[in-house]
Design brief:
This protein is an alpha/beta fold. It has 12 helices and 17 strands. Helices cover 34% and strands 19% of the residues. The protein has a 7-stranded mixed β-sheet, sandwiched between helices. The protein has a 4-stranded parallel β-sheet with strand order 9-10-8-13, sandwiched between helices. The chain has a two-stranded antiparallel ribbon with strand order 4-5. The protein starts with a strand and ends in a 16-residue tail after the last strand.
Length: 392
């Protein structure tokens, strides 16, 4: 009998901890005589793969074994590489499908898009993949949910520095991001203090403020999050009050990229990605300009965003990644589908893949954010799970 074959892919932005998932699944596969095939560049592997072309197969398929995954968990990124590919709304056809009679749809802007789900299903069948493990954030997992609805056996694993995937209290990459942000801010205190300025730090967080809030929590500084629109005059007054009270005459604040205040909405630029997201203009620079215009105070801005996803995973990300990978493999052995590895009430669990129509998970402002001081709430934590916000 042919060996059972499963596939694994990573989609969206890279984070630390992805390789630990890949290794855990591969090692479990070797122990259970199951072949593990790595699908390179996320969903693009299944839209662009031409099974009849040897070069295409070598480009998009990576057979995984104990030898080529033995040390990958020690470093960040993903050995499978990644992309932001949405098979439901492809703006260009793969070369081998150009000229085919695939029907196209027109976007509201008149742009042609193609739904290549049929190609994805054909490639999964042609590869003999019986079960798929998809690692990603909201966008990657939204397509995983679609495949599950179409009968593909699939288990999901949440990853994102924003920690905003629904149905779980933790996503791979979040802890390392907070560690990186905290370290950078602590290092830059010396420069901000030496020049007696206001230090403004920008981190990821398009729709949810988990990264900014937890960074502020760990470094004891102020923060602005997308879930609460602040009063700018009040914020500036608080920063100046803190600066004057500090013997070194400086103050610090961290902003989510999607942070807003009254009269300001983050500007977007560039072409939207395959999931409709455009880049956010730098909110730290916008705040710096307002502080200078209103008070004459000098500032220093620092964009920490991409640094947070790079480098080796910390202990928590490695622990959770290994566990999520093993949970996904156990679920696959049991024939389960449409589920996601998760932390719920501080405990490991399997939950449904989130409904994309509900959007990203948000902070509970009332229990986490001091709207008078623009700081995290430090009191009343007894009974909460380790990451302080419940999954639902």
């Amino acid at each position: 009998m042919a060996r059972k074959r499963i596939g694994i892919l990573t989609g969206g932005g890279d984070v630390s901890g992805l390789n630990a998932v890949i290794k855990s699944v591969t090692y479990r596969g070797s122990e259970n005589d199951i072949e593990v095939v790595g699908l390179r560049r996320g969903w693009e592997a299944l839209t662009h793969l031409n099974l009849e072309d040897a070069d295409s197969r070598s480009h998009y398929l990576m057979p995984l074994n104990r030898e080529n995954t033995r040390t990958i968990d020690r470093r960040g990124g993903t050995v499978l590489h990644t992309s932001r590919t949405n098979p439901s709304k492809m703006q260009e056809l793969p070369d081998h499908l150009v000229g085919s009679d695939l029907p196209a749809s027109l976007s509201t802007k008149g742009t042609k898009t193609w739904d290549l789900t049929g190609q994805v299903l054909a490639n999964l069948s042609g590869l003999g993949i019986e079960h798929l493990i998809a690692i990603g954030g909201d966008d990657t997992l939204s397509y995983a949910a679609k495949l599950s609805d179409l009968g593909v056996k699939i288990i999901a694993i949440p990853k994102t520095m924003d920690n905003d995937v629904r149905n779980t209290e933790y996503c791979i990459g979040f802890s390392t991001a907070i560690t990186r942000a905290s370290d950078a801010i602590q290092r830059q205190r010396t420069t901000v203090g030496s020049h007696e300025r206001i230090g403004i730090f920008r981190v990821f967080g398009r729709d949810a403020g988990f990264t900014a809030l937890y960074t502020a929590y760990a470094t004891s500084i102020r923060c602005v999050i997308p879930e609460y629109k602040i009063n700018l005059d009040k914020l500036i007054a608080l920063l100046l009050e803190e600066k004057r009270a500090n013997p070194s005459n400086y103050a610090l604040i961290v902003l989510s990229e999607g942070a807003e205040w009254e009269g300001y909405k983050p500007q977007e630029y560039g072409e939207p990605d395959p999931y409709g997201h455009r880049k956010k203009a730098n909110v730290a620079e916008a705040l710096a300009d307002e502080i200078k215009r209103r008070t004459g105070e000098q500032t220093m801005t620092s964009d920490l965003t991409y640094d947070l996803r790079s480098g080796d995973p910390d202990f928590i990300d490695k622990l959770v990644a290994l566990t999520f990978g093993n949970m996904a493999f156990d679920a696959m052995l049991e024939g389960k589908t449409g589920l996601m590895s998760a932390l719920v009430e501080g405990r490991y669990d399997l939950v449904p893949i989130p409904d994309v129509k509900l959007g990203p998970r948000k902070l509970d402002v009332a229990s986490t954010y001091n709207t008078e001081r623009y700081r995290p709430i430090y009191s009343s934590k007894r009974g909460l799970p380790i990451f302080l916000n419940r999954a639902s």
